[in-house]
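Chapter review: from sequence to fold.
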Amino acid sequence: MDFTDGPYYNFTRSQIIAPGVHMIPAPGHTYGNSIVIPEMSEGEHSNAETIFFSPGFVLMMILDVTLG
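The token string follows.
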């Protein structure tokens, strides 16, 4: 990805991949790492997705560290 949409807050490059969804490069030990940032919609919203996502993410991290 070329990240041609300019800066996003304090990140120097970004790419809009859908309305309200930005992708930014996240260089690290893995080539091509990127972060997808969904903008919060206006109005009422729920944090249920975060609550249900967290246990799976923790399990994934434990397996990643344990299995290498």
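Two observations follow directly from the output. Helices lie at 48-67. The mean pLDDT is 87.
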